[in-house]
Write a structure and sequence with these properties.
With 334 residues, the chain is of the alpha/beta class. The chain has 9 helices and 14 strands. The protein has helices spanning 14-24, 40-50, 59-63, 80-89, 104-117, 131-141, 175-191, 287-300, 309-328, and strands at residues 5-10, 30-36, 54-56, 70-73, 93-96, 121-123, 148-158, 197-204, 211-220, 223-230, 232-243, 247-250, 262-267, 277-282. It has an 8-stranded mixed beta sheet, covered by helices on one side. A 6-stranded parallel beta sheet has the order 3-2-1-4-5-6, with helices on both faces. Helix 7 (175-191) crosses helix 9.
């Protein structure tokens, strides 16, 4: 019988109970064996609803569970570093939600924890293992659009609930941490290099103090990436990848659908009405299954994590610079 990685879940966050746990349960390479919450009743309720064998009334108890090989950490942003370190100390591999830290220094401390305890730690950017993003990068690499020169992204939703963790500044709320991190990581993924300087413009909510609208420009050696993200705009997301001879459009770049194929559009630029557009469809997948399965297989096969933790450090370095730029009004160097 194939060995499976046994997962424990830190907390009962919505993303865990509605998306990640059901996705993990689809795979032959892993099983969710335990869930922990600060409330035993909440843990038991989630365990019963999702068919999870064990429920723990504290995060400490989950980490002490000898049946758990790996931990998924979807806690609020300010708890990512501390509980990921405690999980590593307990000998558990960790898949931690983005942003993995609130700054690059926190991310670097996780590299030290990974090396000290001999576990795998990865930031949970599910887009980085999705077939549509791998496919888009392959088209860029093979020169389908000529030389890559620009990446343009939009990502927004509307949420003005003061009780929602995304709107609480002190625990890492705000749009850049929550969704701006996606165009940062995907532009780095496509250019396959780091930006040399960045500049950002941020508007903050007058009540929450969180960044509710942000625009940013990342200057790469080979081109530029620009994005707009907002927590208080109409829900929308799209990515455009521009080259010297063509363009790639990713229809639903970040919250890829699980009920139908994903589509990207390759335009040879022959006219402005799309006569030269070819649609490339990718088989229907659950990107959370793909992400967790890749991580689980790396554990089973004793390989490095699919997305190196050092990449998370580099991503946080750029985000740090964006916040510095928003405060200074100048270009900042990551």
């Amino acid at each position: 019988m194939m060995k499976k990685i046994r997962w424990g879940i830190l907390g009962v966050a919505k993303i865990a109970t509605e998306k990640v746990i059901p996705a993990m349960q689809k795979s032959d390479f892993m099983e969710v064996v335990a869930i922990g919450s600060r409330s035993l009743d909440k843990a038991r309720g989630a365990a019963e609803a999702l068919g999870i064998p064990a429920a723990h009334g504290s995060y400490e108890a989950l980490l002490a569970d000898s049946n758990v090989d790996a931990v998924y950490n979807p806690l609020p942003n300010h708890l990512h570093v501390s509980w990921t370190k405690l999980a590593a100390l307990a000998g558990k591999h960790v898949l931690c939600e983005k942003p993995i830290a609130l700054d690059a220094a926190g991310a670097r401390s996780l590299v030290e924890a990974r090396d000290r305890h001999g576990v795998l730690i990865q930031e949970a950017f599910m887009v980085r293992t999705h077939p549509q993003w791998l496919g888009a990068r392959a088209l860029v690499r093979e020169g389908r659009i000529g030389e890559l020169r620009a990446v343009q992204s939009s990502f927004s939703y509307f949420n003005d609930d003061p009780r929602n963790v995304r709107n609480v500044r002190d625990i890492g709320g705000g749009g850049i941490y929550d969704i701006g991190c996606y165009p940062v990581t995907t532009s780095r993924f496509l250019f396959e290099e780091e930006p040399t300087r960045v500049i950002a413009l941020v508007e903050r909510d007058p009540h929450f103090g969180t960044d509710r609208l942000a625009s940013a420009l990342l200057d790469f050696p080979r081109g530029q990436a620009l994005f707009v993200c907002s927590t208080q705009l109409v829900p929308y997301q799209r990515t455009q990848i521009f080259g010297t001879r063509g363009r790639i459009e990713i229809e639903v770049p970040y919250n890829a659908p699980t009920d139908r194929p994903c589509r990207i559009f390759c335009d040879d630029g022959r006219d402005l009405i799309g006569s030269g557009v070819e649609t490339v469809a990718y088989d229907t997948v659950d990107q959370y299954t793909v992400e967790a399965e890749a991580f689980s297989r790396a554990i089973l096969e004793r390989r490095p994590a699919p997305i190196p933790l050092e990449d998370a450090v580099a991503n946080m370095t750029v985000i740090d610079a964006l916040f510095r730029s928003a405060a200074s009004g100048r270009w900042e160097t990551p």
